[in-house]
Amino acid sequence: LFxxxxxxxxxxxxxxxxxxxxxxxxxxxNYLNYVTPGNDNYGIQPSGPGVSGTLTRTVNSTPxxxxxxxxxxxxxxxxxxxxRYQWDKITAKAKFPVPANPAQREVIRxxxxxxxxxxxxxxxxxxxxxxxxxxxxxxxxxxxxxxxVGQPASVLAQLGAINVNTAFEQEKLDNFELGVKSxxxxxxxxTALGGYYEIGRxxx
Length: 204
Known about the structure:
By secondary structure, the protein is mainly beta. Helix content is 4%, strand content 67%. The chain is built from 1 helix and 14 strands. It has one helix at 153-161, and strands at 2-3, 7-16, 23-36, 40-41, 43-44, 51-52, 55-74, 77-96, 108-126, 129-140, 143-144, 167-168, 170-184, 189-203. Strand 5 and strand 6 (51-52) form a beta hairpin. The longest helix is centred in the last third of the chain and has 9 residues, at 153-161. It is elongated. The model has no long low-confidence stretch (mean pLDDT 87).
């Protein structure tokens, strides 16, 4: 059984140029705050009746800046370039069950930085129809295995052998996409066809 709870809030400031120009732009900044008292994982213990669970309080604070430029090469063909830079500031602390080792009760923290670009090419081949191609790069921030903190060296060596460490790296994903979207019968019918190729890897 899995159970979770969270609170979040965000603010954004954006400036956009007139959209009827051949060259258009947008720029801004936003801030996201995400707090969870922990996700519980409960299950029957192998040794007998009962349940077990773990709970880690996590706080994510993510300021970011972003921008984009869009240019109509010809009236029906638009090329766009966008980028986002963000700082994922993450803190974590084991809360339940209360760790016996004092080192496991301490707050651990790290900041994961990422730069996410995106390039697009759109061709409006008919009213309500577009063929598009894009490349983008995105990140998923890393985090912590709080129960690992303060374990004896012998335990850490065994966990390290199966790639379980105190912190895990953020992940990077490159996405290539090609597709077509169309509307028919005065907008009553919509069709979309797309192909994707993605390359993911851990990123320090």
